[in-house]
TrEMBL record:
Gene Ontology terms describing biological process: cell division; chromosome segregation; mitotic sister chromatid cohesion
GO cellular component entries: nucleoplasm
Cell division found in the keyword field: yes
Gene3D superfamilies: Tetratricopeptide repeat domain (1.25.40.10)
Record-stated family: Belongs to the SCC4/mau-2 family.
Protein name per UniProt: MAU2 chromatid cohesion factor homolog
Ranges in coiled-coil conformation: none
Biased composition (Polar residues): 558-572
Subcellular location: Nucleus, Nucleoplasm
Region annotated Disordered, chain positions: 553-572
Organism: Seriola dumerili
Keywords tagged on the record: Cell cycle, Cell division, Chromosome partition, Mitosis, Nucleus
Length: 572
């Protein structure tokens, strides 16, 4: 690194040693570390030392301080100087990578793109960095929702990895592309890609942990693809394979032997992160299938593991996993009649989103949707409408949009005097509304039965039972309501239990079955009491004030409540 010889100068080694000592002290002494690195420039070092020191200073300032201007200056100098030096790839491309990451953090995405493009252009003879920079630029495009550009880059990466003889990295690029295609709903392209990936993964012989991690990635995509289509029963073999795969990985020891091919120096996720992800997709499956106690069990396990990981690991993906898990369990709580707990967990999501603007941007619509569902459960219909309206303005995701609109329609139905708004909303959901309702419900029942969608089956049964009761067909009504109650108890779904018990009471009364009517009335009374107590507990929480928040970041402080301010009539 010295001007005249290959060996570093003693002064440089001494300053570097001191800087590293201060950086790794407990607690780190960052100011002293920076002083030592800045002192290097006093010696008028050669370009290689100068560029490397700018990179080290920029990295330390970026990672450990709030002095973003100085961090930017040093990283830009490192990138500029290193480009003039031949055979200096590690510093050159690390500078490009960290500078681009810094720009993105500062919301200067348009400054990051040309840096990454230039680095990709000049790194073709350096396989590791070329692949890494392609992944980085693809991720940047994906974060901007430009999935077409991201997919193109991942395709380029897959072909480059194939030419470089790394089937492992080729599979990583292709699986990443498959994930984005799933997000874009380009299912005609997903099927052949996943088939190709499956063949590559099974045929690849290499490091067992790398092979199993590829299988986990592949199976996670398959499982989410099935769940996205509502195929809860069909997905079971894939989900079982995925769970067995993660068990296999947990028994394998990390192999310290690095791959000989520099293009293969990547891993998808750490083992511990994969484990949480498998818990997460299991929770998604359990919830869709209507096994809410099982969903609760796996959520508890995943959240416990996340808390342990977050003590040692600041990776943003852990907070994303945590938010998605909480979103699912909040919906479970609302179904099982635990509104107070759901509200406290909504507050947890708010706190996590306050710590990360990107997390809030990605989950604001879901957060307002959850608050809307909570508002319906405590009969605050004006607030529910406001929450759903806010959520609709924050999403372009088709399935989420449909979910929000159908729940908004349920608010209009409950209010009873919003017919015009309801009809215009139904027109937006399904312009072709010329279908016979009874046949439509029977079709829903048939579909939900075929795929073990227990909640949908229970809701369809009780609604059909109610229709038959109103039509005076008591026998057919009973044939629907009894299995609805059994399914609802198994889930357990408190609203369907309440509805079914009320129907059973009226049915038995109409048929002159006094004892059965009394038993159903007692059940209805028990469910009503449970809901009433939970209603009072939820509305008394300070977090209940969240129902009024519809704009900007969620509030950090909550004023205490004096007690419930909403009517219980519609609940009982």
């Amino acid at each position: 690194m010295a001007a005249s010889t290959e060996a570093p100068e003693p002064w440089y080694l001494a300053l570097l040693g001191f800087a590293e000592h201060f950086r790794t002290s407990s607690p780190p002494k960052i100011r002293l570390c920076v002083h030592c690195l800045q002192a290097v420039f006093q010696f008028k070092p050669p370009p290689r030392v100068e560029a490397r020191t700018h990179l080290q200073l920029g990295s330390v300032l970026y990672r450990h301080t709030k002095n973003s201007e100085l961090a930017q200056t040093h990283l830009e100098k490192a990138w500029f100087i290193s480009q003039q030096i031949s055979q200096f790839e590690d510093v050159k491309f690390e500078a490009a990578s960290i500078l681009s990451e810094f720009y993105c953090q500062q919301n200067l995405v348009d400054s990051a793109k040309p840096v990454l493009r230039k680095a990709i252009q000049i790194s073709q003879q350096t396989p590791y960095w070329h692949c890494r920079l392609l992944f980085q630029l693809a991720q940047l495009h994906a974060l901007e929702k430009d999935l077409v550009s991201a997919c193109d880059l991942l395709g380029v990466g897959a072909e480059y990895a194939r030419v470089m003889g790394s089937e492992y990295t080729r599979a990583l690029f292709l699986l990443s592309k498959g994930m984005l295609l799933l997000m874009e709903r380009k299912l005609s392209e997903v099927h052949p890609l996943l088939t190709l990936c499956g063949t590559i993964v099974e045929n690849w012989q290499g490091n067992p942990i790398q092979k199993e991690s590829l299988r986990v990635f592949f199976l996670v995509l398959q499982v989410t693809h099935y769940l996205d289509a509502g195929q809860v029963k069909s997905v079971k073999p894939c989900l079982k394979q995925l769970q067995q795969c993660i068990q296999t990985i947990s028994t394998l020891h990390d192999d310290e032997i690095l791959p000989t091919n520099p293009a293969a120096l990547f891993h998808w996720l750490p083992k511990e992160h994969m484990c949480v992800l498998v818990y997460l997709v299991t929770v998604m499956h359990s919830m869709q299938a209507g096994y809410l106690e099982k969903a609760q069990k796996y959520t508890d396990k995943a959240l416990m593991q996340l808390e342990k990981l977050k003590m040692l690991d600041s990776s943003p993906i852990l907070s994303t996993f945590q938010v998605i898990l909480l979103e699912h369990i909040i919906m479970c709580r609302l179904v099982t009649g635990h509104k107070a707990t759901a509200l406290q967990e909504i507050s947890q999501v708010c706190q996590l989103c306050q710590l990360s603007p990107r997390l809030f941007t990605n989950h604001a619509a879901q957060l307002h949707t959850l608050l809307g569902l909570y508002c319906i459960s405590v009969n605050c219909m004006d607030n529910a409408e406001a929450q759903f309206t806010a959520a609709l303005q924050m999403t372009t995701h088709q399935e989420l949009w449909t979910f929000i609109v159908t729940n908004l329609a349920s608010v209009y139905i409950r209010e009873g005097n919003r017919h015009q708004e309801l009809y215009s909303l139904l027109e937006r959901i399904n312009p072709d509304h010329n279908f016979p309702v009874r046949r439509f419900l029977r079709e829903t029942l048939k579909m939900s039965n075929a795929e073990d969608l227990n909640r949908l089956t229970a809701c369809s049964l009780v609604l059909l039972g109610h229709i038959f009761f109103v039509l005076g067909n008591h026998r057919e009504s009973n044939n629907m309501v009894v299995p609805a109650m059994q399914l609802a108890s198994k889930i357990p779904d408190m609203s369907v239990q309440l509805w079914s018990s009320a129907l059973l009471k009226d049915l038995n009364k109409a048929c002159g079955n006094t004892m059965d009517a009394h038993e159903a009335a007692q059940m209805h009374q028990n469910f009503s009491q449970q809901l009433l107590q939970d209603h009072i507990a939820a509305c008394s929480l300070p977090e209940h004030n969240l129902i009024s928040w519809t704009d900007g970041l969620p509030p950090g402080q909550f004023q205490p409540q004096n007690g419930p301010t909403t009517s219980l009539a519609s609940l009982l």
